Amino acid sequence: QVQLVESGGGLVQPGGSLTLSCAASGSIFGISTMGWYRQAPGKQRELVATIASSGSTNYADSVKGRFTISKNSTKNTVYLQMNSLKPEDTAAYHCNLNTLVFVRREYWGQGTQVTVSS
Q1: pLDDT, tens digit (0-9, with 9 covering 90-100), for 90-102
Q2: Phi/psi class of residue 65: alpha, beta or left (left: φ > 0; alpha: ψ in -120 to 50)?
Q3: Burial class, 88, CB count within 10 angstroms (exposed 0-12 / middle 13-18 / buried 19+)
Q4: How confident is the model over 29-53, as a mean pLDDT?
Q5: What would the DSSP string read from start to end of 1-45?
Q6: Which residue in 52, 57, 48 sits closest to 91, CA to CA?
Q7: What is the mean pLDDT of residues 36-61?
């Protein structure tokens, strides 16, 4: 059983910063990627950023230069540093974990709400 627990969401003013954390626990083997997706009301879930076991990163165009994804492999934890936040960043942010040991498995966290508003 794999669990992902997110933290760090909240209310922030435009231009502000937040850092999200996601800790994975349980029987975890063969992590290939960890990442963050977000879903705003009435919209589809979209990729925000991912980081591979190698450390290579991938970002949505809308967050490049503002968000930074990082990880602590020994703690199976991924972080998302969000700077220069905009109202359009408001969404539920979900942690994602992919493992690959003969078969690919995908896990999701429950989500943490980020609201950017004055």
Answers
A1: 999 999 999 998 8
A2: left
A3: exposed
A4: 95
A5: -EEEEEE--EEE-TT--EEEEEEEEES---EEEEEEEEE-TTS--
A6: 48
A7: 97
